[in-house]
Amino acid sequence: MLVLAIESSSQVAGAALVDEDRVLAECTLNRGLTHSEALMTLIDSTLKMARVEVSDIDLFAASRGPGSFTGLRIGIATVKGLAQALDRPVVGVPTLDGLAYNIQYTDRIICPIMDARRKQVYTSIYEYMDGKLSRADEYMAIPLENLIDRLLVDGRQVVFVGDGIRVYREVIEGRMKEKALFPPIPFREQRASSIASIAMDMATRGETSDFKTLTPFYLRKSQAEQRRDVQKTSTR
Fold first, then answer.
1. Phi and psi at residue 64, in whole multiples of 5°?
2. d(Cα 26, Cα 85) in Å, to the nearest integer?
């Protein structure tokens, strides 16, 4: 099975081509360019490097959120368009699952943190159970301090992953000391190959859909929607 996956949930833009036992090609860009500028170029480069035609793809996948509202819409729209044109199934992979997947086979807690602004993070908690990565809590958009409180109660060491490290590392280390661990740079942020690998596992379990039903997963409303809600409340 050939899987083409797109990552566009943050400033990272990526495309990866994966089969059952290897990453054939992967392109990642983390320079703050808009995904509308970068994604199709990354997809084209990935396919060309692997000498694969887009018509050879068996499954399309995308990170579906949480994350940047605009980035998610662009990535999912791209995957939906390709899947529709080629009549292929699609898989939407939660972004936090993809981040946690970057950290393999550890007995420590894995905690992806994505900067959600306003001192909040998108997050969940993962651990390996019987050699399998499992999510141990719900997907959350919560203040960082609240997350740290929860992790300190558990008492185990925590491997943090995600772009929230750049923003909050000092705060985390200040409160958690030696309980906080941070992976090497190549594993800290979103990778399209992780999305592709999870998507392949989901496909083997029959968890695919068609392009019509793939939608972004938002943990909270956009700023524009929040402003509209405030305006409606104030005019009542």
1. -110, 5
2. 23
Q: Is 190 helix (H, G, I), strand (E, B) or coil?
A: coil
pTM given for the model: 0.92
Residue 229 lies in a domain: no
| Domain extent for 50 | 3-95+190-221
Is residue 231 in a domain? no
Q: Where are the beta strands (DSSP E) in the chain?
A: 3-7, 13-19, 22-29, 59-65, 90-94, 109-115, 120-123, 126-129, 132-135, 140-143, 158-161, 180-181
Cβ atoms within 10 Å of 185's Cβ, excluding its own: 8
Amino acid at 147: L
Cα torsion 98, 102, 105, 107: sign:
negative
- Which class for 153: exposed (0-12), middle (13-18), buried (19 or more C-beta within 10 A)? exposed
Q: pLDDT tens across 56-75, in order?
A: 999 999 999 999 999 999 99
